[in-house]
Amino acid sequence: MSQSQDRFVLPGDVIVTGTYRPEQNVVLDDDRVTATAVGFYEIEDNAVNVIPLTGFYTPKPDDLVIGKITSHTSFSWEVNINSFCVSILPAFDIFGKDYSPSKDELSSKLKTGDLIVGRIVNVNPGRDPLMTINGENLGKIDSGELVKISPTKIPRLIGKDGSMIQTIEAATNATITVGQNGLVVLKCDNSADLKKAIEAVKIMDSMLDDTNVEEKIQNILDENN
Asked: What is the mean pLDDT of residues 151-172?
């Protein structure tokens, strides 16, 4: 199922009025939340965001992605993967080939709002991509901080042979799961180190080029050390 047309906005469009918290690509004018970018808006927990069209992820087979369960039918879950379409997670992926809609309840395994890490299985034109959570280090994400960056910045965040993400993990003792769709989950027992790891990830998204990126991230990691 593709993003619905009524969620598409242009700069200057009023998304909603009332008591809401403006976040990315929106501004608050009195009680009106107005878009500042072309894209699709989302409202969650009274927070309003606009995902710019340039920030959408294009699914490709075997991509590792982080997604949020948005709904389910009798046979599958729909997963928001920060794309122009949702991804479909079939019920048999979790319940097995003997899955029965009459005796197996999907919400007993995954509920709306749950985060998962999975892989894109296949992508066919005109159909929402299928995904799986069967595999090593795949499945439901029970804890961690979710950070969203542009999917185009993910290769730079990972670094050559994983060098950049390993540097951040080593300096902060954080565990970082990076989705190729621009969603990143960070876990760390130390709140100060977690904050530094999050800042290091976010600065990658804010930089227009790679000039001195390693130095800037190292400066963040070295703070108060």
From this structure: 91
198: closest CA among 181, 175, 215?
A: 175
Reported pTM:
0.76
pLDDT in tens, 8-18: 888 889 999 99
Two structure tokens written together for 159: 């670094």
Q: How would you label 104-121 residue by residue, b for 16+ Cβ within 10 Å and e otherwise?
A: bebeebbeeebbbbbbbb
How many Å apart are CA 120 and CA 93, to the nearest integer?
A: 13
102 CB-near residues (< 8 Å, 6+ apart): none
Cα dist from 117 to 13, 82, 101, 103, 141, whole Å: 33, 13, 24, 26, 7
CB atoms within 10 A of CB 33: 24
Q: Is residue 98 part of a domain?
A: yes
**CA–CA gap between residue 131 and residue 113 (Å, rounded):** 17
End-to-end CA distance of the chain: 48
In angstroms, what CA-CA distances link 186 with 87, 179, 212? 23, 11, 24
Read off the pLDDT band of 208 (50, 70, 90): low
> What's the sign of the alpha-carbon dihedral 217, 53, 45, 33?
positive
**CATH number of the domain where residue 180 is located:** 3.30.1370.10
Domain for residue 58, yes or no?
Answer: no
